[in-house]
Q: What sequence folds into this?
């Protein structure tokens, strides 16, 4: 794959991962509004987050985040979001470095293709509390894609 094709594909993968992260954040906000649980999964709870907001503001925010129906587990959502930050960022930085170097091996595209698939499977396994080893295997697959890109940077 040529460098421009690789960088275009990388941009699409990065956009997908960012949208997944933004969606996770919105789901956290939605679940917090439904359950009124503003502390689960936080290291620091700001006082302005627990004060009662005007009903009109709360109603607007609930409407914007579709805060009706059952809430997802906030602990799982925040745990997954932390996992995204600690895994997806390194992958994207390595892929960007390979793009800038213009020295990506042909198999680097497979890592770029497989990584989002592993991350979506991991997300579904994490959020639905699917039995192991599904979550562990999907996480390992994503890590191996990251390691493959790291090794490509050394070649």
A:
């Amino acid at each position: 794959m040529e460098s421009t094709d690789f960088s275009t594909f990388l941009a699409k993968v990065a956009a997908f991962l960012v949208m997944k992260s933004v969606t996770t954040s919105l789901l956290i906000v939605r679940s917090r509004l439904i359950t009124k649980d503003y502390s689960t999964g936080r290291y620091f709870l700001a006082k302005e987050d627990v004060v009662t907001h005007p009903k009109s503001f709360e109603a607007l925010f609930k409407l914007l985040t579709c805060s009706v129906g059952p809430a997802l587990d906030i602990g799982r959502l925040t745990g997954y979001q932390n996992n995204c930050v600690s895994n997806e960022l390194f992958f994207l930085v390595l892929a960007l470095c390979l793009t800038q170097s213009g020295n990506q091996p042909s198999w680097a595209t497979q890592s770029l293709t497989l990584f989002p698939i592993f991350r979506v499977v991991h997300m579904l396994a994490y959020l639905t509390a699917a039995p192991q080893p599904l979550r562990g295997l999907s996480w390992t697959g994503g890590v191996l894609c990251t390691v493959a890109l790291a090794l490509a940077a050394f070649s």
User: Anything to note?
Assistant: The chain has a mean pLDDT of 85. Residues 31 and 76 are 11 Å apart (CA to CA). The helical segments are 3-35, 55-64, 74-101, 108-127, 134-154. Residues 3-27+72-154 form a domain with the Four Helix Bundle (Hemerythrin (Met), subunit A) fold (CATH 1.20.120.550).
